[in-house]
Amino acid sequence: MPVSLESNVEIWAAEVEAMPRADYYMEITSALVVRDVIQDALNAGAKLASEYRAKLRDADEAFWAQREELVAKFPDVFTPARQEAGPSSYWWWFLNEGPDARKRREAA
After folding, report:
1. The dihedral sign for the CA sequence 37, 23, 102, 65
2. CB burial string 35-64: b at 16+ within 10 A, e below
3. Is the per-residue pLDDT at 88 higher than 60?
């Protein structure tokens, strides 16, 4: 049974909260794949109730706030080889590009 969009938002939020305690790069990569799934669904026209839109926004902001620590701790996650796997607008894969990465990637 496929996981609902709302469930994926819940998973993403929980993963973001756990990231400071992550010890292995696959923990981060797996979370970013969940974020990809969420964005793929939204791009395909799926809608989120306002509470889940807020939860997604808050999780994204919390993730963004961790960018320097995540890039320093898990540089292999944010490499060109991994970044080529998805759309360039998926900013969560491009934290290594610095503080303007999100704005540039969302505009892509």
Report:
1. positive
2. bbbbbebeeeeeebeeebeebbeebbeebb
3. yes
Which of helix, strand or coil describes residue 51? Answer: helix
CA distance linking residue 56 with residue 15, whole number of Å: 12
Residue with tokens 């998973």: 11
The model's pLDDT over 32-62, given as tens digits with 9 standing for 90+, comes to 999 999 999 999 999 999 999 999 999 999 9
Decide: 67 and 61 in contact? Cβ < 8 Å.
no
**pTM attached to this predicted model:** 0.90
